[in-house]
Structure formats: structure tokens, C-alpha cells
Amino acid sequence: MVSMQTATSSKSCVQRHRDCLFQQDNARPHTARATQDFLRHNSVNLLPHPARSPDLNPIEHFWDIMQRRINALARRPRTAAELRAAVTQLWAQVPQQQINHLVLSMYRRCATVINAQGGATRY
Fold first, then answer.
1. pTM for this structure?
2. Membrane-spanning residues where (predicted)?
3. Is residue 48 part of a domain?
4. Residue 85 in contact with residue 77, Cβ under 8 Å?
């Protein structure tokens, strides 16, 4: 369940960026009825995102790195507060060089998708 603080923060963000397009994939939290109702009610502009499309957003790959680091913890977070603390700590430990490499790899990733004419790639 979404906390009131999260919902208020999301609504504030949407209101500040009325002229922006938001992108989200077809993950369950994004397609949930509550999410869809929120987006419709707040007239959020969404960029179409086809199912099974490659992840061409660097943050998706960064979240994968973070997930692996959280899974590797000796004691995994059990509460939202513990998760927030773990993500904050682990985020600070990711070397800037790794982030730069990820961002700079996007040209290659996009070229691979274009060469495959939208077909399957390793991304």
C-alpha cells in the first residue's frame, strides 16, 4: 500500500511537471489499477512504452545493480525504513566510474536495438 507521504510527493511532482512526458515500463506497479487511476485523475502525460521493449533507460540498469547489492547483504532490509537506509548507503558506494560507464554504454545499446530492427537483443 502506498503511504500518504509517497502519494503526496508523487502528486506534487506531477503538478510541477505538467509539461513533461513520463516514461514507465509495464511493470506491475505501473499497470496497477491504483496507479492508472492516479495517472488519469492527474492528467499525467505518458510516453507509450511497448511490452517487451529493451531497457534503454540507464536508471533501469542502475536499479539492477542496486538490487544485486541489496540481495548480497548479510542481513537484508525488512522494513521500508531499513530498505531506504540500505539503498542510501549502497548508492553512495557505487563508484562514479561505474555510473559513467553505464551512461556511456547507452549509445551502443541503442545502436544494437536499431541494428536488430526492434528485434531481440541482450538488453
1. 0.60
2. none
3. no
4. yes
